[in-house]
Design a protein that fits this description.
Elements: E1 13-17, E2 29-33, E3 38-41, E4 49-55, E5 68-74, E6 84-90, E7 97-106, E8 112-121
Antiparallel strand pairs: 1-2, 1-8, 2-3, 3-4, 4-5, 5-6, 6-7, 7-8
Length: 135
């Protein structure tokens, strides 16, 4: 279960793609943030859907961290070279799930950067504890 400290600024993710050529922001490839978490996104199909994996470097649980599957979708590229996207990570080592939404940018130096917001939902056994299940 990632905590807000898992990302550079609470709710924001700044990652860099280590595989894709510059000039157009392409989600496919391996991304890493400044805390060492990494994700790999496979090919984006014609409908904008993709799958991959996320390996967080930080967690609020004592469970051993494991690579977790992700599924997502990006807005159709068309003429947009900096697409919006969203994906869900189903954590393999906890009973939580996180959704991310964001946009892929190409900065002034030609680097691809993801800017995202995320929302994590943890399992609760009782509706009375619902208030503390979302971060």
């Amino acid at each position: 279960v990632p905590t807000p400290a898992a990302l550079p600024v609470p709710g924001l993710c700044c990652s860099t793609n280590t595989e894709s050529p510059p000039l157009q922001c392409v989600l496919t490839g391996r991304w890493m943030n400044d805390l060492g978490s990494n994700m790999t996104i496979g090919a984006v199909n014609g409908e904008g859907n993709f799958a991959g994996s996320y390996h967080t470097a930080v967690t609020a649980t004592t469970n051993e961290i494991r690579k977790s599957p992700l599924q997502g979708s990006q807005h159709h590229m068309n003429q947009k070279s900096q697409p919006t996207f969203g994906f869900t990570v189903n954590w393999s080592f906890s009973d939580s799930i996180t959704v991310f939404t964001g946009q892929c940018f190409v900065d002034e130096e030609g680097n691809e950067v993801l800017k995202t917001m995320w929302l994590l939902r943890s399992h609760e056994d009782n509706i009375k504890n619902d208030w503390k299940a979302t971060r």
